[in-house]
Specification:
mainly alpha; 0% strand; globular; 58% helix; 460 residues
């Protein structure tokens, strides 16, 4: 085994190189799947450092500070997308291991540099075709569109991930399971994802000769554009050569306007994740004919009866370059309040992953409910839905009252929050009561939000 074990921390050099996919094969080759580090989890401090650096450079150099409402919405989507991983092993890896155990044709050596490089190419090739299909098949687009809903383009956008996407992407990696060991695949599926973090920025303009081979910020800005020339282009993960080979490459030209062709105009975490599913459901009902309904699911997002598979380019909304992103312009105080609560939630979220083995299923579900309610509250605040403000402050007061108990539990040796004890049982009841109380207050407004969403989708 090379590099470092799954339980240890990478060196600073390894951590930085990990973010750019430049770790060597002898540093990242492992015999068994259990030895493979959780690189995405270990990348957290590098995410934070790079976000902070971009924030400063964007503000001081470009004169374009980060919009808190859009940034928090992106980070919230990232949190939501990883919550299933608390309860289950990732579906990409689980299904890969199943195919490897039952259908592999032969086994390449796990410690060979040739195997490492072949997997690098294979994973990136699989990602290209998954990503392309995620734009060309409507039910797959329902999972991927959350990532494209951001109207800003910065490193927070990279973290605006979909809750649903992983349930359609895993199929594209199955052919590798015929001969690539799972431990090698597990390394590269993480590195492929991490590489795509740094390319979500406007700070870097052009990288010269590297633009010919690698996916770069310039190439990926085009991919995120809603300008007609940007649509359905530049699907690369790490290597842009796939787009050049298969005719989907488009260079950056005029100013790119980011987001969906039909902006969703919301900061709500559930709307960001599921709005296109509601749109598809509505289209299924109003589209006549069985085969037309099948086409709604399996053809492109722009398809309609009598149209080509991917829709008509002339129906794309005109982009002038003067478009203004959705912005409710919350006060500075409100933004600070939302950021503080997001940071508090993030501490609980991080501990949830680190302590999940010791937590009961009830405790895990309670924490997930608390996280989802917090993110929903932040979304409502960013949309200036002030009808709930007294309830939110009341919930915050209750949360602050129980923080000392959290601190005491965490500081005790071999203790873990929500362990099955009398104290933790009492604590669970308190949290459950708080969640139930908040649900009662949130129910009316959330129902109203969903009704508004359905109406908007119907109009669309």
């Amino acid at each position: 085994m090379g590099g470092y074990a799954g339980g240890s921390e990478p060196s600073l050099s390894q951590g930085v190189r990990m973010m750019f996919y430049v770790l060597r094969p002898n540093e990242t080759s492992f015999k068994t799947i259990d030895e493979v580090p959780d690189y995405v989890d270990k990348a957290t401090p590098y995410f934070v450092a790079m976000l902070a650096l971009e924030f400063v450079l964007s503000w001081l150099w470009k004169g374009k500070p980060l919009r808190i409402n859009d940034g928090l919405t992106s980070l919230s989507a990232g949190v939501v997308s990883r919550l299933p991983d608390v309860l289950f092993r990732g579906i990409e890896l689980s299904t890969y291991i199943y195919f490897w155990n039952n259908y592999r044709l032969f086994e390449l050596p796990w410690d060979s540099p040739w195997t490492w490089w072949l997997t690098f190419i294979g994973v990136d090739f699989g990602y290209y075709w998954f990503h392309r299909m995620a734009h060309e098949v409507n039910f797959m687009w329902a999972g991927h569109q959350a990532h494209h809903s951001a109207e800003d383009y910065n490193l927070t956008t990279a973290l605006r991930q979909s809750f649903l996407q992983k349930y359609t992407s895993f199929v594209f990696y199955w052919p590798l399971a015929l001969f690539i060991p799972p431990s090698v695949f597990a390394v590269h599926i993480q590195f492929n994802l991490l590489y795509q973090f740094w390319i979500h920025t406007e700070i870097i303009s052009n990288l010269g000769p590297l633009e010919l081979i690698l996916n770069t910020p310039s190439h990926h800005r085009v991919h995120h554009g809603r300008n007609p020339y940007c649509i359905d282009s530049n699907y690369a993960g790490t290597l842009i050569i796939w787009d050049r080979m298969f005719g989907t490459f488009v260079p950056e030209k005029e100013k790119v306007v980011y987001g969906l062709t039909h902006p969703i105009n919301t900061f709500g975490p559930f709307q960001v994740q599921f709005q296109h599913l509601a749109y598809m459901w509505n289209m299924l009902w109003v589209t006549p004919g069985f085969w037309n309904k099948v086409s709604v699911v399996f053809k492109g997002p722009g398809w309609g009866p009598g149209k080509p598979r991917l829709g008509l380019p002339e129906e794309l909304p005109e982009v002038t370059g003067e478009e203004v992103p959705y912005n409710t312009k919350p006060t500075v105080l409100l933004q600070v309040y939302a950021v503080v609560h997001f940071i508090l939630m993030l501490g609980l979220y991080q501990h949830l992953f680190s302590a999940k083995i010791a937590l009961s299923n009830t405790a895990i579900l309670l924490r997930i409910c608390y996280i989802l309610l917090t993110l929903t509250s932040i979304g409502l605040l960013m949309e200036k839905r002030f009808g709930l403000q007294p309830v939110l402050y009341s919930g915050a007061y209750k949360a602050l009252k129980i923080l000392p108990q959290i601190q005491r539990n965490l500081s005790e040796e071999n203790s873990s929050l929500f362990l099955e004890s009398n104290v933790s049982a009492q604590y669970q009841k308190q949290v459950l009561k708080m969640i139930c109380l908040n649900i009662c207050f949130f129910h009316t407004d959330i129902s109203k939000s969903m009704n508004e969403l359905v109406i908007a989708v119907s109009i669309k």
